[in-house]
Predict the structure.
Amino acid sequence: MENLNYGIIGNCKSAALVSEKGSIDWLCLPKFDAPSVFAKLLDKDKGGSLSIEPEKLLSIKQEYIERTNLLCTRFVCEDGVFEVVDFMPRYKNDNGSYYSPSDVVRVFKRISGAPAFRLNYDPKLEYALHETFLSENKKYIKAITKKGPYDSLYMYTDFNFSDILNKELITLTESKFMLVSYNQKLLKQDIHRVKLKMERTKVYWLNWSEQSTTFSKYNTEINRSALTLKLLSYEKTGAVLAALTTSLPETIGEVRNWDYRFCWIRDGSMVVKILTQIGHRSVAQNYLRFIVDILPEKDEKMQIMYGISGEKKLSEYELPHLSGYGNSKPVRVGNAAYKQKQNDIYGILMDAVYQHFSLFSASLGYSEDLWTVVRNVVKMVEKNWQKPDKGIWEIRNESKHFTFSKVLCWVAIDRAQKIAALLKQDDYTEKWKKLEDKIRADIELNAWSESKQSYTQAYGADDLDASVLLMESYGFVEAKDPRYKSTVYAIQSELEHEGLMYRYINQDDFGLPKSAFTICAFWLTNALYRIGEKEQAIKKFEELLTYNNHLGLFSEDLDFETKQQLGNFPQAYSHLALIETAITISEGEITKEEKIMDAIR
């Protein structure tokens, strides 16, 4: 099984995965969570793709155009050299709105010689449930379904249509393009219009990257991770996706395969907090508006996750006709975890809201909306903090009193008090302080194990859990606290394996976990640096960076032995933790240029 050597392109409406060989193997249109049009990622035979097949290939090199989300694949062949730049258009219109159509664009550029290749255009609409038919029109090649839900796709190109449909050998003598669109285009598509879209999109991403805070170290890695997180944000509603894909397995051949094309309150809140920290405030503002919009009623329960358009029912079903990545079934659409209770979401959301109030001035109406959210969350914590839940790892069967959930309930009340102080709502702080103290005392009494000398995964058990490492970063304990230091060493001793980390090693409802959860390795690295193990932390961090793919991207999991990337991809969790750890190791030190820019701003 090959590694997840893919690049992501996108425009905050949808995104595609392009393999290191230049094949588009995953694309859902018109938006992230729509049925796939290319899904070779999940079934090599049935899924469909758009691939480039050179006649006399020698080598391929792939890289992003620096500080952008435009992906360049260079093909070196015996008969010549050519490049393909893949992107999804995104740039500002004159009226300030964004042009971000449901389009994928490929620009072919001859570098030397007369390279020859075939184009295998093989869309499979609606998750390849039924046959897709291609037909030639005067302006485009149209793909349609004739059974099941009707769907269609338009492909515009200045290549000869019959050469594509018949997979004839094409010799590249000048720049050409392909444009795959969910919609029929109203304007004539030609190479000049396409190149203009490419340059405008390049400028958009360069400007976006320029807004990022630059630190004393690891700016290349921080920038690529930030660009990836931006691609996982849905502009229309402000939702943030956990990952682009569905059903990429945590372990090859097993059943831990989930659909991650949704907005988890936890993941989204963590992403916007870290992007705000490096200068991208609009993502946070859009996300908090999404939160306000999905919680319209004061007595409405908060779900752990929502659809990217605010959907509350995310029914899970399987696609048995697809073989799965690495033949790992089932392939799932939807996610039944939306029904779970996970009490940590309250604190993680409240932390993001507090950051917003700390950094930004907001309109009175918007502030009142958020203040209502704050008070509602406090009521939810009051009602639920003493109850067991499914925890951060979404254990599907057994509910427990998870330590991380309790700590984040404490965080929710702590941040609520701070927000009340900022808004001069002092009447609330005394009552909330009593609740905060009560939760803290409960954690200190029940989550500490004398035998392990560590805070544990759950009350009344000695099992350890990597999520407990976050107690310090959320402010529950200080890095110098002896209990926290002891916890870091205990978790490292029990959960670290081959330089990576288990989330936990106790049995869950799917058996003993077999892969490393990428974010946990970053959490350990961050914790070690904070408690003074700086040399060890830097060494671990730099080793972790070697486990990314050829473009600097991370999935959810890693194989302990081979370091093969596993799980959904690219994973927001992994990239936000990379940025956070890089900032920690940089000790928040920004460059001289950044200090000048701060003064100008």
Remarks:
- The chain has two domains: 6-209, 211-600.
- The chain has 15 helices and 28 strands.
